[in-house]
């Protein structure tokens, strides 16, 4: 009897060992399969929600993704919740769809603007003559807004191919007097770059006009502390004050488009909040 029980116990223990051995041999394969699935799921997306087409080519955020991000920032900064009727006024066409090949060799702002302005880019961005009844002084076609004077100058360097014949307007306060800028804006201006506070002041005194403005570029690059145009506290408030005063209605009417230049931080989170 004893030997029979011992035999059964031995067989049971042997069976358990074989089962455990089998599980261990199968587990790595399951883990590998899961890793493959994860890789497959994440393939096509970067950390910033951009689409990866392979071969080092990354698509910038779509117009819809940019719009969701922008609306989320608008609501968050202004502490408002737009109604469904107000949200319907925002269309994907409010945003400039950036071209897709921007990873290993990111396109400059100038290259993006060529695409944004289409076949008319030379007429709108390069010509220097005033045309009576058509081109008014101090009315740019392209306005770039960033968080600092230094960054404004960096972006103007990317637009240098357009500004050889018609110099750009530098609209920031560092080393620049309002009177000097008012005087400069009495000429034809195709491109202007500056910071929110000074841009608003020049519009307020009617030195800077918006009748020709068709593309508004918002610089998304962060500084060494991780702040950008839409997150640096004082600058952010100045920007939204400017936007609500002079740009919001024009965007809704389709008179101008917004271009978010640079990587969008946490775009997936912004979309999630917006969708909720």
What does this entry show, briefly?
This protein has ten helices and seven strands. With 276 residues, the chain is α/β, with parallel strands linked by helices. The longest helix has 41 residues, at 2-42.
Please provide a written account of the structure.
- The structure is a single chain.
- The protein has 276 residues and is of the alpha/beta class.
- It is 48% helix and 10% strand.
- The chain has ten helices and seven strands.
- The chain has helices spanning 2-42, 63-78, 84-89, 109-117, 121-125, 149-158, 178-184, 196-204, 233-252, 267-275, and strands at residues 51-54, 57-59, 142-145, 169-171, 191-194, 215-219, 257-261.
- A five-stranded parallel sheet has the order 4-5-3-6-7.
- Strand 6, helix 9 and strand 7 (257-261) form a beta-alpha-beta unit.
- Helix 2 (63-78) crosses helix 10.
- The longest helix has 41 residues, at 2-42.
- It is elongated.
- Residues 51-58 and 268-276 have low confidence and may be disordered.
Features:
276 residues; alpha/beta; 10 helices; elongated; disordered C terminus
Helical amount among residues, as a percent range?
40-55%
Structural class: alpha/beta
Contiguous uncertain segments of 5+ residues: 51-58, 268-276
Radius of gyration: 28 Å
Measured by DSSP, the beta-strand proportion falls in: 5-15%
Beta strand count: 7
Which strand order does the major sheet show? 4-5-3-6-7
Question: If you average the pLDDT, what whole number results?
Answer: 81
Q: What sequence of helices (H) and strands (E) makes up the elements?
A: HEEHHHHEHEHEHEHEH
Distance between the termini: 70 Å
Largest sheet: 5 strands, parallel
Shape estimate:
elongated
């Amino acid at each position: 009897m004893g030997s029979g029980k011992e035999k059964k116990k031995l067989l049971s223990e042997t069976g358990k060992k074989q089962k455990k051995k089998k599980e261990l041999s199968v587990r790595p394969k399951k883990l590998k399969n899961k890793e493959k699935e994860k890789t497959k799921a994440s393939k096509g997306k970067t950390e910033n929600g951009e689409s990866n087409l392979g071969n080092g080519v990354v698509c910038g955020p779509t117009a819809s993704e940019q719009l969701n991000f922008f609306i989320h920032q608008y609501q968050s900064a202004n502490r408002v919740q737009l109604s469904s009727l107000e949200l319907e006024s925002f269309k994907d066409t409010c945003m400039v769809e950036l071209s897709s090949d921007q990873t290993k060799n990111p396109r400059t702002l100038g290259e993006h603007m060529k695409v944004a302005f289409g076949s008319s880019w030379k007429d709108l961005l390069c010509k220097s003559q005033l045309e009576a009844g058509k081109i008014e002084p101090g009315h740019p076609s392209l306005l770039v807004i960033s968080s600092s004077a230094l960054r404004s100058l960096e972006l103007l360097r990317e637009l240098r191919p357009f500004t050889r014949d018609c110099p750009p307007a530098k609209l920031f306060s560092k080393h620049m007097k309002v009177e000097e800028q008012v005087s400069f804006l009495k000429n034809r201006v195709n491109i202007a770059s500056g910071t929110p506070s000074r841009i608003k002041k020049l519009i307020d005194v009617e030195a800077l006009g918006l009748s020709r403005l068709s593309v508004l570029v918002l610089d998304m690059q962060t500084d060494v502390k991780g702040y950008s145009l839409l997150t640096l506290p004082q600058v952010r408030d100045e920007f939204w004050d400017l936007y609500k005063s002079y740009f919001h209605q024009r965007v809704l009417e389709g008179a101008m488009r917004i271009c978010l230049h640079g990587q969008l931080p946490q775009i997936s989170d912004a979309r999630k909040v917006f969708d909720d």
